């Protein structure tokens, strides 16, 4: 059996069309003639896996947030374009409807939710706040918009 030797910096490119055309029984011949240098393939694409929790507190906040998203999908949308500002004091409404979550866990989840870029941007875009059922209950005040603008600038400077 021979070993495949490529020039330095060359990576074999698997051509699936030629693989399917050249299949012989159980053995397949792979066409390695179209190898490319990494620079010829363009920049490597990063696969976004979303937010990866770094510690126990973040894992708890994410798990609580998933519960909130399944229980109240209109208030906690999974689609970033549908994220809307929540009413002030919504944690009290959540605890009134489901005390088993615990005040601390709800506060951590809401802190995580309200510090996201899409939430801060929604404070700037939209004029009304939602309750748990998706109904508009109050207006976003100017102080909240200024705080969101400042938080966005800070987050973008940190990178």
Structural overview:
- The chain is mainly alpha-helical and 159 residues long.
- It has a domain at 56-158: ProQ/FinO domain (Fertility Inhibition Protein O, Chain: A, Domain 1), CATH 1.10.1710.10.
- The chain has helices at 16-21, 56-71, 90-97, 103-114, 117-125, 142-158; strands at residues 23-24, 27-28, 128-130, 136-139.
- A two-stranded antiparallel ribbon has the order 1-2. The chain has a two-stranded antiparallel ribbon with strand order 3-4.
- A hairpin with a 5-residue loop joins β3 (128-130) and β4 (136-139).
CATH architecture of the domain at 56-158: Orthogonal Bundle
**Beta fraction:** 5-15%
Question: Could you tell me how far the N terminus lies from the C terminus, measured between alpha carbons in angstroms?
Answer: 51 Å
What is the CATH class of the domain at 56-158? Answer: Mainly Alpha
Characterize the biggest β-sheet: 2 strands, antiparallel
Going across the biggest sheet, name each strand in turn.
Answer: 1-2
């Amino acid at each position: 059996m021979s070993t495949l030797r490529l020039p330095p910096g060359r990576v074999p490119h698997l051509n699936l069309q030629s693989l399917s055309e050249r299949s012989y029984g159980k053995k397949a011949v792979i066409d390695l003639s179209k190898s490319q240098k990494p620079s010829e393939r363009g920049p490597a694409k990063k696969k976004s896996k979303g937010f990866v929790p770094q510690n126990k507190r973040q894992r708890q906040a994410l798990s609580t947030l998933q519960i909130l998203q399944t229980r109240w999908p209109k208030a906690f949308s999974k689609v970033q374009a549908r994220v809307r500002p929540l009413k002030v004091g919504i944690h009290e409404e959540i605890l009134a409807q489901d005390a088993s979550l615990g005040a601390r866990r709800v506060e951590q989840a809401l802190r995580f939710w309200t510090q996201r870029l899409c939430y801060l941007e929604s404070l700037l875009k939209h004029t009304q706040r939602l309750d748990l059922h998706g109904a508009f209950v109050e207006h976003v005040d100017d102080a909240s918009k200024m705080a969101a603008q400042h938080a966005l600038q800070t987050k973008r400077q940190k990178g």
